[in-house]
């Protein structure tokens, strides 16, 4: 268990990593990565049970996480490295030729902590269902966690998986939706309005939790604890987490413009000034 301040310090350093990684190669997706920093920090530093020293694909007797919206790889790589899966110094190879840290995570790179390729959107829940059912068959009582973008839910495969999860009572699954209301071309309502996502999940017989303070460490801890408490009751659990794209960098917030754009030198300096180093830069 980490203290609230330790979790805040961790997430602030992760924000610095994201900004520096994307700036160094003038490529990547900082907006969604920054928006999910607190969630992944809490998940890996306070909630999940795992062994980063002996990573294997089976994850027996370990909690498992699948990142479905793989373009926010900068935050995932930073959290994995700072959680002990691989060297923090390797973050400096982000998106370089022959690096294991490509723009979208892939399993063939052999990167510790990565259990599915997630360059194509909409497939994460299907992968997670397989892992969750395998755990049930193996008598493994650990949980499977996933993260999805709200714009990603416009992909149809999600809804096949959502239907399957409840029909087959996959109740060792906790799926979180990053509800920031933005995607690459604008707001989700402008691109393809989805109405009430809560009502849709409930219509598919999921337990749905809502958290409006999706960038607040303690609020995330509370909703994940509630989701874990509700697991194992015959229904999968969905968390609708309202986050702010670009959180922690004032000029990147309240806009979709930084979905997939790197900061220039002056912008990086300004962004880093808002997020002083806490754990040391790579």
Write a structural description:
This protein is of the alpha/beta class and 282 residues long. 39% of the residues lie in helices and 11% in strands. It contains 10 helices and 7 strands. It has helices spanning 4-25, 30-35, 37-47, 73-82, 124-137, 157-167, 188-192, 197-203, 217-230, 265-273, and strands spanning 64-67, 144-149, 173-179, 182-183, 186-187, 207-211, 237-242. A 5-stranded parallel β-sheet has the order 1-2-3-7-6, with helices on both faces. A two-stranded antiparallel sheet has the order 4-5. Helix 1 packs across helix 4 and helix 1 packs antiparallel against helix 10 (265-273). The radius of gyration is 18 Å and the shape is globular. The model has no long low-confidence stretch (mean pLDDT 97).
List the helices and strands and how they pair.
Elements (H helix, E strand, L loop, with lengths): L3 H22 L4 H6 L1 H11 L16 E4 L5 H10 L41 H14 L6 E6 L7 H11 L5 E7 L2 E2 L2 E2 H5 L4 H7 L3 E5 L5 H14 L6 E6 L22 H9 L9
Parallel strand pairs: 1-2, 2-3, 3-7, 6-7
Antiparallel strand pairs: 4-5
Low-pLDDT segments: none
Mean pLDDT: 97
The topology string of helices and strands comes to HHHEHHEHEEEHHEHEH
Order of strands, widest sheet: 1-2-3-7-6
Share of residues in strands: 5-15%
Helix content: 25-40%
Q: What's the story with the biggest beta sheet?
A: 5 strands, parallel
Number of strands: 7
- Quaternary assembly: single chain
Summarize the structure.
The chain has 282 residues and is α/β, with parallel strands linked by helices. Helix content is 39%, strand content 11%.
